[in-house]
From TrEMBL, chain B:
All residue ranges annotated as the ABC transmembrane type-1 domain in the record: 74-274
Similarity comment: Belongs to the binding-protein-dependent transport system permease family.
Key words, A-Z: Cell membrane, Membrane, Transmembrane, Transmembrane helix, Transport
Alphabetized InterPro entries for the sequence: AA_ABC_Transporter_Permease (IPR051322), AA_ABC_transptr_permease_3TM (IPR010065), MetI-like (IPR000515), MetI-like_sf (IPR035906)
TM ranges: 34-54, 74-98, 110-130, 256-277
Record carries keyword Translocase: no
Entry protein name: Histidine/lysine/arginine/ornithine transport system permease protein HisM
Organism per entry: Streptomyces albipurpureus
Length: 255, 312
């Protein structure tokens, strides 16, 4: 199991200046697993996700994605920082979905989706467009291909953002509170798309406050607080029978 | 009406809203506006009268308005404006990216450049370029060598002087534009595996354009007028041609008015261009774009033609 983990963190530390945000994270995400991260605001969940995708540099410890060290190359016992271009190559295989969608507002939905495949993977326009149409259909927005993000609801934007990430055919998808910025009635559509992805066997790391989704779809769950993993296990166990006081008090507030 | 309400009564749907009577109020009278208009017209008439009585031979202006030399000068002014702005915008983008880069060397170079070129008058810069022959007697680019005075033609002096100075101003405009784009945008782009260069070109700069274009339009219009300075370094553009004609024909002041009219016509045309460019870069930023003047005229005409009852 541990040899072929999709994500493996060993004592991951991350500081911003004097502030230590991650204080030694250990965890493992198996392939095809839906791995949920929960915890109070400011506990370091986003920072950890951003480390996985090289958007932040780890200060200490080791972080592996699909067996490869994140951010550095190891030669003997020396670590070399990766060049920007090498980092960009690694990011291709990791899809990321943001709380605030971050669609490119000057491009239509379908242009958002084909952008990276054409620019980064040098796919032909026809191939990229055909896949983008399939993806739009899959997230239930086949009729919105030519809409600009400003003409879409939050839920629709987030589904386009998911399609955009999927267009790079990633082996791992990271979700950072994908439904937190949405009106309650729009949350369901986005979660349905994520559920579908999980059923298709996508490896997913999901930061979420949707405990229903975690319980139903999640394979593993970690409760983080103040930069450390407080408790982990199967979502059903952690959510219904938390062991730690901090977990209990957090769950009593969100459930 | 009442019959309808009784029909829908059982299933609890609210009655259709009755149309309230349109308000017909007497509008506020803006007497101040009439007074201001009368005063303005009066003043304008006085000024026109004063000028018409002056010793100015107005007839000379139409005589020379489309003189070959004037048309050629205006064309040179446009060409110079265009290429100076190309240098200015290109240089400005490069300087802005340099200033925002994490590399301390490149960002200090950009800072120094902007500091120098913004801190000295463009007319002085033009003279410096013109007289650089005192420093460099010859130029040798390996594949090209020449006397400095032959190399540094009035055209090149003008281009370098105006373009390099403009780059410093454009750099600040571009920097403001780049900074106006949400950080989440480059983050999303990087997360898709796009390189820093691609992120800039495909994601950040197109969005920064919305902030960059309006002040750049002003810069173009400004540049068109500033080109008149290069008359001082022997470049015969519109203003210098007008001056030349003025001296030879004995109507110098008339030719200044002629030049002013040409500049006014050209800046007005540029303003229209700017309007459409701004619309282009507003794409996707607002749900519906404001109508163009042409669309406005069209819709007015149509709404006038449309019979009263049809308008909803
Ligand atoms: N770029 C940054 N610079 C400084 N502090 C940061 C930065 N990013 C996050 N932090 C801090 O790190 C802590 C954890 O943030 P975050 O990972 O966003 O938490 P969460 O996603 O769990 O709410 C917060 O206290 C936040 O202020
Ligand atoms: Mg967060």
């Amino acid at each position: 199991m541990s040899a072929n983990a999709m994500v493996k963190a060993e004592g991951v530390h991350k500081s911003f200046g004097p502030v230590e945000v991650l204080k030694g994270i250990d965890l493992e995400v198996a392939p095809r697993e839906v791995f949920c991260l929960i915890g109070p605001s400011g506990s370091g969940k986003s920072t950890f996700l951003r480390c996985i995708n090289h958007l932040e540099k780890v200060n200490a410890g080791r972080l592996y994605v699909d067996g490869e060290l994140v951010g550095y190359r190891q030669k003997g016992d020396k670590l070399y920082e990766l060049k920007d271009s090498e980092v960009a190559v690694k990011r291709r295989d990791i899809g990321m979905v943001f709380q605030r969608f971050n669609l490119f507002p000057h491009m239509t939905a379908i242009a958002n989706i084909v952008e990276a495949p054409i620019q980064v993977k040098r796919e032909s326009k026809a191939v990229a467009l055909a896949r983008a149409e399939q993806l739009l259909d899959r997230v239930g927005l086949a009729d919105k291909a030519d809409s600009y993000p400003s003409q879409l609801s939050g839920g629709q934007q987030q589904r386009v953002a998911i399609a955009r990430a999927l267009a790079m055919e990633p082996k791992l998808m990271l979700f950072d509170e994908p439904t937190s910025a949405l009106d309650p009635e729009l949350v369901g559509d986005v979660l349905d798309v994520m559920r579908g992805l999980a059923e298709d066997g996508m490896t997913m790391v999901v930061v979420t406050h949707e405990m229903g989704f975690a319980r139903e779809v999640g394979d593993a769950l970690v409760f983080m607080d103040d930069g450390v993993v407080v408790e982990s296990g199967h979502p059903r166990d952690v959510l219904t029978n938390p062991q730690h006081d901090r977990t209990k008090s957090f769950l009593s507030k969100v459930l | 009406m009442t019959v309808d309400i009784e029909k829908t009564g059982p299933d609890d749907t609210p009655p259709p809203p009755t149309q309230p009577e349109a308000i017909k109020a007497i509008p506020v009278r803006h007497y101040g506006r009439y007074v201001a208009a009368v005063v303005a017209i009066g003043l304008f008439a006085l000024i026109v009268y004063a000028f018409s009585q002056g010793k100015i031979n107005w007839g000379a202006i139409p005589d020379y308005f489309f003189d070959d030399r004037i048309v050629d000068g205006a064309w040179k002014t446009l060409v110079l404006t265009f290429w100076s702005m190309v240098i200015g915008i290109g240089g400005g983008i490069i300087l802005a990216v340099m200033r925002l880069s994490k590399n301390p060397v490149t960002s200090s170079i950009a800072w120094f450049y902007i500091w120098f070129f913004r801190g000295t008058p463009v007319l002085v810069q033009l003279f410096v370029w013109f007289n650089l022959g005192l420093v460099f007697e010859t130029i040798n680019l390996g594949f090209y060598q020449d006397e400095w005075s032959d190399f540094m033609t009035p055209m090149l002096t003008a281009l370098l002087g105006l373009g390099l100075n403009e780059a410093a101003y454009m750099a600040e405009i571009c920097r403001a534009g780049l900074l106006s784009v949400d950080e989440g945008q480059s983050e999303a782009s990087h997360a898709l595996g796009m390189s820093q260069g691609k992120t800039l070109r495909r994601v950040v700069i197109p969005q920064a354009m919305r902030v960059i274009v309006p002040p750049t339009g002003n810069e173009v219009i400004n540049m068109l007028k500033t080109t008149s300075l290069v008359a001082a370094v022997q470049f015969t553009e519109l203003f210098r041609q007008a001056q030349n004609i003025g001296q030879s024909s004995g109507a110098p002041v008339e030719m200044y008015f002629l030049a002013a009219s040409w500049y006014l016509v050209m800046t007005s045309i540029l303003s229209v261009g700017q309007y459409y460019l701004e619309r282009h870069y507003a794409r996707g930023s607002s749900r519906s774009l404001p109508p163009t003047p042409f669309q406005k005229i069209k819709s007015t005409v149509f709404s006038v033609r449309r019979p009263k009852g049809v308008t909803a």
